[in-house]
Design goal:
233 residues, 10 strands, Inorganic Pyrophosphatase, two-stranded antiparallel ribbon, 5 helices, alpha+beta
């Protein structure tokens, strides 16, 4: 019978033949969290908001963009991340709100580039420079802000403090209003951005989300090997 390590090598061969799940089968990056892979779901020209179906990994239509608030940047998530206890713990520490939980999704990321990338469902290598501490319905829903690696305009930025104020304002305004529907009012906004933070804290959020992922999902190849070995006993 094959041992666990041989089985894991076999699964890697399978991954060369079959498409990997964008969340569970793509690596967050060899040098993560300093450099990460972003799986892009939506680009600025999209009039539909897409997101992956967590079960199948295929792209799913979430909703039409009903109004003129298009995404101001490439938008997606970092593979093999999860917003759970460790990410929520940091939000509680920074805000003083002890009722915050994680939103149980991969960590969202915006990628700035001067190039026109016309469709999603692509992997983009990028460098985090900061982020928004966002609460959605009382749950931690951080938005990491990154720049496309090697980008001619944004690629040399090291921290969000170097980002032009108007670009940052556009991003902030989008996330504060993208769920609002004109003509409908709520007593209390469900979206709140409590902080804008720099690179160091963005890396901490990503690192925590990678740890949260390992706690909740573990190593996929390890799990496959264990299930296979139990099956053939």
């Amino acid at each position: 019978m094959m041992d666990k390590e041989n089985l894991k090598e076999l699964f890697k061969v399978f991954s060369q033949r079959y498409k990997s799940h964008p969340w569970h089968g793509v690596e967050p990056g060899v040098n993560a969290p300093e450099e990460v892979n972003a799986f892009i779901e939506v680009v600025p020209s999209d009039s539909i908001k897409y997101e992956i179906d967590k079960e199948t990994g295929y792209m799913l239509i979430d909703r039409p963009q009903k109004f003129s608030n298009h995404f101001p940047a490439l938008y997606g998530f970092i593979p093999k991340t999860y917003c759970d206890k460790k990410v929520a713990e940091l939000s509680r520490e920074r805000t003083g709100n002890m009722d915050i939980d994680g939103d149980n999704d991969p960590v969202d990321i915006c990628v700035l580039t001067e190039r026109n990338i016309n469709h999603g469902n692509v992997i983009v290598p990028c460098i985090p420079i900061g982020g928004f501490r966002m609460l959605d319905g009382g749950e931690a829903d951080d938005k990491i802000i990154a720049v496309l690696k090697g980008d001619s305009i944004y690629g040399d930025l090291k921290d969000i403090s170097e980002l032009p104020a108007k670009v940052l304002d556009r991003l902030r305004h989008y996330f504060k209003t993208y769920k609002e529907i004109p003509g409908e009012s709520t007593e209390k906004p469900t979206i709140e951005i409590t902080h804008t933070y720099g690179k160091a804290e963005a890396l901490d959020v990503i690192k925590r989300s990678m740890e949260d992922y390992k706690v909740s999902y573990g190593d996929v190849d390890d799990k496959l090997a264990e299930i296979f070995m139990e099956t053939v006993k």
